[in-house]
Structure formats: structure tokens, C-alpha cells
């Protein structure tokens, strides 16, 4: 049944949690591409057959014409499924760049495993585009993602961060489980990466 | 006595610190941009002024901290500064996200292209190139010829049918600033109009109020 593999590929994508990536399903992906190739060969052979019978290809509506039409439509549908799969994953990759950080190595390793090398390339290129825009405008756009309520917030450190991080107004020693009173803009990148948590009480 | 005159002087400073009308304009532009489904006109002059003012206030806040001024006042200035900075950053961010979402459409439609700033245009072209390259490497080069275009479904398609476009039909909440009378339907069909008094709230399709928003008669909420 033509088109079933494309449909399964998209169902696989949709079955993951919204906004979360699953590992790239190369098996289904390659199978869908194979199906496209198959469709194309059959399409071409049917058209050649019609040309050999000296029939005017666009205007003659016989059984071969409709067979060729089905192959063409199935090919287009598979192409749309494949592009939708890649496009939606790319959208999530861009979203990651905004939320977590623009450096590839900052992404937690569980996420890095799920990206193909091509997607990592895309992530790097996109980060470069964002950084160059931010550089030209002169304003950092990654901080301040949430409207500011208080300028200072209480945070607790979850992971071991290197000692002696220099913040905008003091140097502190971030030991695990210690609590600090930091400026919101300083703490945000750490919170986004999961190394700190905000204490709200 | 010295502290009294200081506080009186500083409250006068506070008024002049952030020009209130600019912040209002920025807030309005930000709200409109957030609610609209497509990208709106770039307020270049406003952004430039806001940037300058933010820099000025930042410098004065630093001065105050060094001179040991009343920490409560300093944190008030700081909070106001943070809020304005957030507005500016969020305004630019919302625009970038819209560009990312409708990459190919923005470069194709002249109307949309006119609304981008110079740097946004550069960003949009680079983004579209990156995505097209990503598509080609992942999918398109493996497909048969005639089906390798990013924008068209196949060589036979007459228009670029794989370009996602912003939905101009979405409903938005808007409030009008003046008395406005709008045509509800397309030209040529039955001309039903809706009339909005000043301050009325309406829940209406974006397409209809689009022109009025550009001219500033209606605000989105």
C-alpha cells in the first residue's frame, strides 16, 4: 500500500511528547525514500510505454495514464511526509537553541544522541545566524525570557559548577546544594541548563 | 536636610530618566506584535531611541551604586530598567520567531519583506539558506529529479506550493482608538460594515483590521 510508510513515519514523530525529540528514525525514513524511487521507476516506465504506443502523453487518458498519475501523486505525498518530518524536527532544534543555549556542547547528552549529524550541522548554522544578528543589533536576546518580577532571586545549585564564576557584581563559589541570592539575568542561563533551580516560597 | 534635597532632586531625575511616552510606544508595539499572526512594520526609530535611553539609565545606575546612594532607590531604577529591557528584547525576539516560522514566505512576499529591518533581512536570508541546505542534504537529493525543489511539490506545480503562510484569518482581540467603520467582506460582495466606537473591544478576524492597525487606529490586546 503506497504511502503507509510515510504515514508511519509521521505517526512516530507525533507519538513523542510535544516539543521533545525522539531519535531519528532512519529505518522508516530510508524505506520511504526507497518507495519514492520505486514509484518514480514505475512512473517513468509507464510514460515510456505510452510514448512507444505513440500516444500523446498529456492528453490521452488511458489506463496507463492513470497508473502514472497514481505513482506521481504517491511520490508527492511521500515527499510531503518526509519534508514534514524533517521540518518539524528542525523546528524543535531551533526551539532548543532559544531555550537552552547557542553552543552545541551545552545541550545535555540525552538530546545530543537523538540528533543526526546533519541536524547538528543545522543547529550550528542557525546559532551562527542568531549570534550574528544579536551582534549587529547589539543586544543579547537569550536572557530575560520571562517577564521580570524581582531583580534578584534565590537559587539552589544542583550540579557542580566550576569555582570562581564571575558574575556581574561579585565572584562566588558555587558548591552543590548551596543557596545564593543572584541577579535574575545572571542566573537564567544556569537555570535553563538545569544546573540551578529557582526557589519560590 | 541634605538627604531631603537629594531625594527631591532625584525624583525629578527619575521623571526624565525614561521618557514615559517612548516606553508607552514600545509597549504598544510589543503588544501588537505579540498578538498579530504576521510580522508588522519594524519600528526602527523607536528601537534606536529605546536602546540609547537604556544605556544612559544603565550608566547612571552604575554611578549611583558606586556613590552609595540609597539602595532602595537604586533597586527601583534597576527594576524599571529591567522592565524596559525586557520589553525591547521580547519585541525583537517575537519578530525573530515569526521570521523563523514563515521563512520562505517572508522572502517571497514583497509586502512582508518591506516590514523587516536591514539586519532582519540578512538573518532571514541566512535562515532560509540554512534550512534549504538542511532539506536538500536530508531528503531532497535522495529523491528523483523533478521532485527536488524546496518550494514546489514537483516540477509540474505551477506555484510554490510548499511554502507555509501566516494565517490571516485568525481571530484577535482589538480595541479601537477612534471611531472606525470597516468593511466586513471582500470588495464586491455584500458590503456589511462594522462600526467601532472609541474604546470598544472586538473579537474579530485579523484580515479585517489589518489596515487599521498599520495606521494606528486600532490596537491589538
List its salient traits:
heterodimer; A: 201 residues; mainly alpha; three-stranded antiparallel β-sheet; two-stranded antiparallel ribbon; 6 helices; elongated; B: 221 residues; 5 strands; flat; disordered N terminus
Task: Please give the structural blueprint.
The complex is a heterodimer of chains A (201) and B (221).
Chain A: H1 4-15, H2 26-52, H3 63-99, H4 109-114, H5 117-137, E1 152-157, E2 165-166, E3 171-172, E4 179-183, H6 184-192, E5 196-198
Antiparallel strand pairs in A: 1-4, 1-5, 2-3
Helix pairs in contact in A: 1-2, 1-3, 2-3, 3-5
Chain B: H1 2-17, H2 20-35, H3 44-67, H4 71-101, H5 103-108, H6 110-114, H7 118-138, E1 171-176, E2 180-183, E3 193-196, E4 201-205, H8 206-214, E5 218-220
Antiparallel strand pairs in B: 1-4, 1-5, 2-3
Helix pairs in contact in B: 2-3, 2-4, 3-4
Domain DNA replication complex GINS protein SLD5 C-terminal (chain B): 166-221
Domain GINS subunit (chain B): 72-137
Protein name (chain B): DNA replication complex GINS protein SLD5
Amino acid at each position: 500500500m503506497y504511502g503507509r510508510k510515510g504515514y508511519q513515519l509521521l505517526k512516530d514523530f507525533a507519538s513523542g511528547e510535544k516539543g521533545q525529540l525522539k531519535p531519528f528514525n532512519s529505518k522508516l525514513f530510508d524505506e520511504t525514500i526507497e518507495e519514492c524511487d520505486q514509484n518514480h521507476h514505475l512512473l517513468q516506465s509507464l510514460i515510456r510505454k505510452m510514448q512507444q504506443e505513440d500516444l500523446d502523453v498529456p492528453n490521452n487518458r488511458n489506463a496507463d495514464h492513470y497508473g502514472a498519475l497514481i505513482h506521481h501523486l504517491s511520490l508527492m505525498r511521500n515527499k510531503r511526509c518526509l519534508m514534514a518530518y524533517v521540518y518539524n524536527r528542525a523546528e524543535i532544534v531551533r526551539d532548543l537553541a532559544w531555550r537552552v543555549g547557542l553552543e552545541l556542547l551545552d545541550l545535555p547528552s540525552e538530546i545530543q544522541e537523538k540528533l543526526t549529524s546533519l541536524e547538528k550541522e543545522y543547529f550550528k548554522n542557525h546559532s551562527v545566524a542568531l549570534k550574528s544578528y544579536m551582534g549587529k543589533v547589539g543586544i543579547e536576546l537569550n536572557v530575560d525570557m520571562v517577564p521580570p518580577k524581582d531583580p534578584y532571586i534565590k537559587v539552589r545549585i544542583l550540579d557542580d559548577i566550576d569555582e570562581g564564576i564571575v558574575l556581574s557584581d561579585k565572584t562566588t563559589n558555587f558548591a552543590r546544594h548551596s543557596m545564593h541570592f543572584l541577579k535574575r539575568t545572571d542566573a537564567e542561563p544556569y537555570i535553563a541548563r538545569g544546573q540551578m533551580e529557582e526557589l519560590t516560597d | 536636610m541634605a538627604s531631603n534635597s537629594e531625594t527631591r532632586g532625584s525624583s525629578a531625575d527619575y521623571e526624565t530618566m525614561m521618557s514615559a511616552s517612548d516606553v508607552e510606544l514600545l509597549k504598544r508595539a510589543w503588544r501588537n506584535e505579540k498578538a498579530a499572526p504576521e510580522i508588522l512594520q519594524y519600528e526602527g526609530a523607536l528601537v534606536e531611541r529605546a536602546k540609547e535611553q537604556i544605556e544612559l539609565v544603565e550608566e547612571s545606575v552604575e554611578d549611583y551604586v558606586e556613590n552609595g546612594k540609597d539602595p532602595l532607590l537604586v533597586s527601583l531604577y534597576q527594576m524599571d530598567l529591567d522592565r524596559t529591557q525586557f520589553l525591547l528584547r521580547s519585541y525583537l525576539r517575537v519578530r525573530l520567531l515569526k521570521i523563523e516560522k514563515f521563512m520562505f514566505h517572508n522572502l517571497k512576499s514583497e509586502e512582508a519583506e518591506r516590514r523587516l529591518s536591514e539586519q532582519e533581512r540578512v538573518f532571514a536570508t541566512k535562515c532560509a539558506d540554512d534550512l534549504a541546505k538542511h532539506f536538500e542534504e536530508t531528503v531532497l537529493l535522495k529523491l528523483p529529479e523533478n521532485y527536488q525543489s524546496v518550494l514546489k511539490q514537483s516540477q509540474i506545480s505551477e506555484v510554490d506550493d510548499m511554502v507555509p503562510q501566516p494565517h490571516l484569518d485568525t481571530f484577535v482581540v482589538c480595541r479601537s482608538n477612534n471611531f472606525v467603520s470597516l468593511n466586513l467582506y471582500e470588495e464586491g460582495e455584500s458590503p456589511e460594515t462594522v462600526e467601532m466606537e472609541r474604546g470598544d473591544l472586538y473579537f474579530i478576524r485579523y484580515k479585517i483590521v489589518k489596515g487599521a492597525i498599520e495606521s494606528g487606529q486600532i490596537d491589538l490586546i
